[in-house]
Specification:
The complex is a heterodimer of chains A (380) and B (388). By secondary structure, chain A is of the alpha+beta class. Chain A has 15 helices and ten strands. In chain A, helix 3 packs antiparallel against helix 4. Chain A is globular, with a radius of gyration of 22 Å. The two termini of chain A are 23 Å apart. The N terminus of chain A is likely disordered. Chain B is mainly α. The chains are: A alpha+beta (380), B mainly alpha (388). The interface between A and B is large, with 59 and 49 residues.
Chain lengths: 380, 388
């Protein structure tokens, strides 16, 4: 397929119109990173869409294969960089499963708490950026940013880094939480609930917002499953499929929470499912705080150098964008033989073309926004 | 020779007077625009729980000047495939109509550049010219985003001009004049002019239609479709830089100011206050102050709308104009005609227009709100379904 689709000429009697190709991205405020799509528009209506990815390819899988198990922690933060800890969690779980390492219970609880905070962080980013895509002049963005800053501050306190904490280790955690963590997290939860209410009030009931989002690019559950879509977009179609419930990992089986689902899988449902998930995540964090035991956070039997003999596993976790799967293979030595990432953003992006074609140009932007892609994850 | 000096219209002194007044207007406008940009940044920042500019001068008061200096020193870039003269003249052609509108506005009873007897007609005749410059910028830039922005702007402005003019006409019918000074005077309670109240109370529907159409003409949210930053990255001025870009910025804020003064004259009474005494009457300082307060309130309303609502889509925008605003404006014009011709009591003006305004709001709300019906997504605090 050519980079620039041939110009299509439509003839209506004697009146000729020529379709126009518009290049959106890689530098465009609405592409959420370095994503590029070439839209063919007939006036304002999109007739063709071709996505181009790979601008942020860093060779994650190959890098991991060439580094020590603990050295490559940092790369995995940078896949879904809005929720780095969820990715770290999946990677660590894969390594632990291959090595047969036990994780102390306290570490599991802290992991779940931090992963849920990451999820909240990522969903807030979606809400803010989506509001900006629909055109609310950055107000939603700033509202969301306030809470994200506070979460990042907590991450910094815990691990020393805001965006890429590199806090988990195969076999546990880098360090225990700071002493005042409980009051800090409780304050954070109150602040998150407040921010959620602010955003809900700003966007959910807004007539223009509803008019723009309701009924736009609906998707049936079967189509979503066939396309391999997971995460909030799948749940927006009405299927309560959440790996935290369906195949509980870590200590998620001890948590009580609900799976928010939508009705028709349209843009509004996707927005609302994510909004609701933030609230569910706060509930999980509260339960973590209540149930958290005392003890070690790193497996004391962890060898100085982690060597794994022949082993192979596939770990799938509920990332913020969908099923975040890590396929790992070891053939002895200190490095993995193969590491493969099943990134949810990449798979969800497959639906872009069929969602966009036939809609208005302005809608194409918010459809892309509603997919909530993270380019670090798409391009690996 | 006597003609040269003594003629009231073509005489030299008249020209000198006009030029001085225009110079004053231009200077004031520059100052106003600089502080409007500063003010908008501050207001928006406070709405968004930020501080806005704080570093330049006390509370960032010199921010506008710093921005101006920066813009003036920037390189003026012209894209290779731009149509040279069209591209270079477009910013000025968008700016001139706004300046020409400012010429006709009475800021105080006796102070405008010229007191035109067909002032309102002049304003909406001139305002339509704005689109020429915008289309030129869109077509001449040689950029597809700019082209889309220019075409969107043209479609939008042509459509919204009609309800705008109709809403103003229904006010002019009641005022019985197209002279802006006269219209302002009619809205005070002085016994000798025999008129009622500010027209916002007499014609709330016209006010709402005017405000909506004005937002569209100004390309402010929720009608900022031609400059939609998240879609077409600034629209028609995407290729401009330096001074030419700042001309667009100047135009945007100057027209916001012009519209707010014009709107406050037509609907809020301009320099007049609803008061029977005439203590404020001869004092032009008070009148300027009153105009200032009213237009600032108007501008704050525009900013408030901007930071609260998202953007409409182009087809929703068009159908809102042609299916809702235009019929309502026409019906209101018709009702006003009946009431005025048959000399029915003026309270009917308020009642019919108020009913129309209520209907308009009801239409907007019922059309737009499709709250999810399922209990699953009713409110986020009640969602929940158990998985296996």
């Amino acid at each position: 397929m050519s980079v620039w689709p041939e110009e299509r000429v439509t003839t209506i009697d004697s009146f000729n119109t020529v379709d126009m190709t518009i290049n959106v991205g890689p530098q465009h405020p609405a592409t959420h990173g370095v994503f590029r799509m070439v839209l063919t528009v007939d006036g304002e209506v999109v007739v063709d869409c071709e996505p181009y990815i790979g601008y942020l390819h860093r060779g994650l899988e190959k890098l991991t294969e060439n580094h020590d198990y603990r050295q490559s922690m940092g790369w995995w933060d940078r896949t879904d960089y809005l929720a780095g800890l969820c990715c770290e969690g999946a990677y660590c779980m894969a390594v632990e499963k291959m090595a047969g390492l036990e994780v102390p219970e306290r570490a599991e609880y802290i992991r779940v708490m931090m992963m849920e905070l990451s999820r909240i962080n990522s969903h807030f980013m979606f809400l803010g950026a989506f509001g900006a895509d629909v055109g609310s002049f950055g107000t939603s963005f700033i509202y969301a940013w306030r809470e994200r800053e506070r979460i990042y501050d907590f991450f910094e306190e815990v691990s020393g880094d805001r965006m890429f904490p590199t806090y988990f280790r195969p076999g546990g955690l880098m360090a225990d939480l700071p002493e005042n963590y409980e009051s800090r997290v409780r304050w954070l939860l109150g602040s998150i609930n407040q921010g959620l209410e602010d955003l809900d009030g700003l966007l959910t009931g807004n007539e223009i917002f509803v008019e723009r989002c309701k009924g736009l690019s609906p998707m049936s559950t079967s189509r979503a499953v066939n396309l391999g879509i997971t995460g909030p977009i799948l749940r927006a179609t009405g299927l309560p499929w959440d790996l935290r419930k369906a195949e509980p990992y870590s200590v998620y089986d001890r948590m009580k929470f609900d799976i928010p689902i939508g009705e028709s899988g349209d843009i509004f449902d996707r927005y609302f499912v994510r909004l609701s998930e933030i609230y569910q995540s706060t509930k999980i964090i509260e339960q973590c705080l209540e149930q958290m035991p005392k003890g070690l956070v790193l497996n004391p039997d962890l060898p100085k150098t982690l060597r794994i003999d022949n082993a192979e596993c596939y770990i799938r976790t509920e990332g913020t964008k969908g099923e975040y799967g890590v396929y790992a293979m070891a053939r002895g030595g200190v490095k993995p033989y193969r590491m493969k990432l099943r990134s949810p953003s990449f798979c969800n992006l497959a639906a872009l073309k069929e969602m966009v074609v036939g809609n208005y140009l302005a809608d194409a932007i918010i459809i892309l926004g509603s997919l909530d892609i993270v380019l670090g994850e798409v391009d690996k | 020779m006597t003609f040269l000096f003594s003629d009231p219209v073509f005489g030299v002194w008249n020209w000198v007077d006009a030029i001085i007044r225009i110079l004053v207007i231009v200077l004031v406008m520059t100052f106003v625009v600089i502080y409007l940009t500063y003010g908008e940044r501050k207001v928006v920042a406070r709405f968004q729980q930020r501080l806005g500019p704080t570093k330049t001068g006390t509370a960032g008061l010199l921010q506008g000047f710093a921005d101006t200096i920066k813009l003036a020193s920037k390189e003026d870039i012209r894209p290779t495939n731009a149509d040279r003269w069209v591209f270079e003249f477009a910013p000025y052609l968008t700016f001139i109509p706004v300046l020409m509108v400012l010429v006709s506005l009475p800021f105080a009873k006796d102070w405008g550049v010229r007191d035109l007897s067909l002032g309102m007609f002049y304003v909406f005749a001139i305002l339509g010219l704005n689109i020429v410059g915008i289309l030129m910028a869109g077509l001449g830039s040689g950029n597809k985003y700019a082209l889309l922005g220019g075409v969107r702007a043209a479609a939008q402005m042509v459509s919204y001009e009609i309800p705008l003019v109709l809403s103003l006409l229904s006010v002019a019918m009641i005022a019985g004049s197209l002279n802006l000074n006269e219209i302002a005077m009619r809205q005070s309670f002085t016994p000798d002019n025999g008129q009622y109240a500010p027209f916002i109370f007499l014609q709330p529907l016209a006010f709402i239609i005017f405000f909506t159409a004005m937002l569209s003409e100004l390309h402010r949210a929720p009608f900022d479709i031609p400059v939609a930053e998240s879609e077409i990255v600034g629209g028609y001025f995407v290729e401009y830089s330096g001074m030419r870009w700042s001309m667009f910025q100047l135009t945007e804020y100057a027209s916001m100011w012009a519209f707010s003064v014009f709107g406050s004259i037509v609907f809020l009474g301009g320099w007049a206050v609803p008061d029977t005494s005439d203590w404020w009457g001869p004092d032009w300082g008070w009148q300027l102050g009153i105009t200032f307060i009213k237009s600032v309130a108007w501008i704050l309303a525009i900013m408030w709308v901007r930071i609260t609502v998202p953007r409409l889509r182009i087809d929703q925008l068009m159908s809102f104009c042609w299916k809702v605003l235009l019929p309502m404006a026409l019906v209101q014009l018709l009702m006003n005609g009946f009431i005025l011709v048959y000399d029915w009591p003026p309270i009917l003006l308020t009642l019919t227009s108020g009913a129309g305004a209520a209907l308009l709001v009801a239409i907007i709300i019922t059309r737009a709100i499709h709250r999810p019906k399922s209990k699953l997504v009713g409110t986020y605090k009640q969602v929940g379904v158990a998985a296996r």
